[in-house]
Specification:
This protein is an all-alpha fold and 87 residues long. The protein has four helices and no strands. The longest helix has 14 residues. It is elongated and about 50 Å long. The N and C termini lie far apart (39 Å).
Length: 87
Amino acid sequence: MSTTVATTDLISVKDLGKAVREARVAMNLRQAEAALLCGVGIRFLSDLERGKETVRLGPVLKVIQGLGLALILGPKKPFWTRDGGRA
């Protein structure tokens, strides 16, 4: 059995919020249920899903883990060349 894993390039907090909301909705969870599952408040989850720039990283990681998501960091393809020009 093969499993396809979708990944999302996150460029902003709004992108992260959208990904979190999509995962929650796919699990058929209301915000209150997901917040309880993740150990955060409903207001925090709502702020995160709306892309609020000032959300704290610790609770964000709790939400990511609680919804069965993973945050993976790696090198990004540079958008410039060695001589300083745009790629």
